[in-house]
Amino acid sequence: MQKIIILDFGSQTTQLIGRRVRELDTFCEILPYNKFPKDDPSVIGVILSGSPFSVHDPEAFSVDLSQFIGRIPVLGICYGAQFISHTLGGKVEKADSREYGRANLQMVDTMNPLFKGFDQHSQVWMSHGDTITAIPDGFQVIASTKDVRYAAFSRTPGGEAPVFAVQFHPEVFHTLQGAQLLSNFVVDICGSIQEWSAASFVDTTVQELKEQIGSDRVILGLSGGVDSSVAAVLLNRAIGAQLTCIFVDHGMLRKNEFQQVMDDYQGLGLNVIGIDASEKFFADLAGVSEPEQKRKIIGRDFIEVFNEQAKKIIAQSNEAPSGAVGGACRWLAQGTIYPDRIESLNITGKVIKSHHNVGGLPKEMNLQLCEPLKWLFKDEVRRVGRQLGMPEHLITRHPFPGPGLAVRILGDITREKVRILQDADDIYIRGLREYKVKLSGEEARRVLAAGVPANMQDGIIEVSLYDQIWQAGAILLSTVRSVGVMGDERTYENPVALRAVTSSDAMTADWAHLPYDFMAKVSNEIINKVRGVNRVCYDISSKPPATIEWE
């Protein structure tokens, strides 16, 4: 299969470049800047990402351009463009002022293949402290803004693969024709035949799973989230009854979530074992208020419960009579997706973050790991889910922390506190799903690009608040008592904070600007209907410096 290699120099938008390439039905891999795969005939082009460094920094990352320049097309973005200029004899200097934000191209060479179909004065997004003041010999300027003469430049020699460089970011939505530029590069210049799609992924992966697993049995831990759910349905299509799923209820899921999700899974034909282990979790969490300790207890208990059930499944598979469906249990499946694996390596290739999926199975189980979604971004996982015919409410579910509501209750955990938070959270999430808004322009494009199903009429789409938001939830401040007045009586009850963020990858996030009338309605309903709450606040912190979750 053809692929584009994206060499990562540490930019926060590298994953976004990857997603934009995948949206062009073209496979790509994101690799550390120094890990270019030599002698791989499937590579049809290279993109060099941005970086937090200046090319003049002693610790700046560098790559041997001779590995690919002249052999296959190259596109440098921001730092990538400056690195190409600096390395090949151009000049990069500190800008008089940091070039950040929207700009318009005052000169665009629309005869150049990179800018085919571009409008004059097209809006782009700049974000750099250095600027190119001279380009290497043999290169031509192909775009400029009022302040940036070399906004883009190229070399298209006869007989050699072309080189392109842009100092702006085509991958972000603020660059209005960024998708056109990337399509020009990936499809027209690199020659992608656009063979990567949800349908092709399902067909190929089902066949690969059949060959990989054979007649073995597979265990998969379900969380109720989109990643593990799609992984389960994909595996079920490949191996059917050989798959056994385990869904552990630690008692801190959303209101009625355990039964609703079990019903969904059974409706999809999955073989699911549901385990209510809430008594164990509440007992072990009693009196514990320190956030990291709560997480460790829940993680430990989950592994214990999961392992106990997994051992039973393994024992049963070993004792199965001849001719029974499936052989021995030899595989543990996980819903690991591509960003999990990218985030597990920094750009020097050293592990900096372990997977958050099911882990800790004893070595004596001797299970091999199966990760059918390991090449997919989150939006691609959702497209695959739709291709598999999964219900929309499962596909569009927001991310939810593994420890559940335990990390949304400040203080120790009790059943009553969980009940209060479940009721408040249910009102909030239901309200987000029911409140519809009309979007156009950049907002509409962003929502559609995220895979939200919506029909555009006259440039306008209608979607719920829930579908515009990356993640939302309520937080119970159980260590705080707030005075209130209800009827003729004073109350001393807990405040609830509402949280909603927009994001593309959870690495950074901004607080969602929810309509005032929506917040007033939800606040009023929570205070009137949820016993134990007399005040509602809204969290307007972005990540960084805050995190998405409170604990």
In short:
With 551 residues, this protein is an alpha/beta fold.
Radius of gyration: 26 Å
Summarize the amount of helix as a percent range.
25-40%
What strand line-up does the widest sheet have? 2-1-3-4-9-8-7-5-6
> Can you summarize the main beta sheet?
9 strands, mixed
Range of strand content = 15-25%
SSE arrangement:
Blueprint: E1 3-8, H1 14-22, E2 27-32, E3 43-48, E4 74-77, H2 79-87, E5 91-108, E6 123-134, E7 140-145, E8 152-155, E9 163-166, H3 178-189, H4 198-213, E10 217-222, H5 226-239, E11 243-249, H6 257-267, E12 272-276, H7 278-285, H8 291-319, E13 329-333, H9 338-343, E14 368-370, H10 378-387, H11 392-395, H12 415-434, E15 436-440, H13 441-449, E16 460-464, H14 465-468, E17 471-476, E18 482-486, E19 489-502, E20 510-511, H15 516-529, E21 533-538
Parallel strand pairs: 1-2, 1-3, 3-4, 4-9, 10-11, 10-13, 11-12, 13-14, 19-21
Antiparallel strand pairs: 5-6, 5-7, 7-8, 8-9, 15-16, 17-19, 18-19, 19-20
Helix pairs in contact: 4-5, 4-10, 5-10, 7-8, 12-15
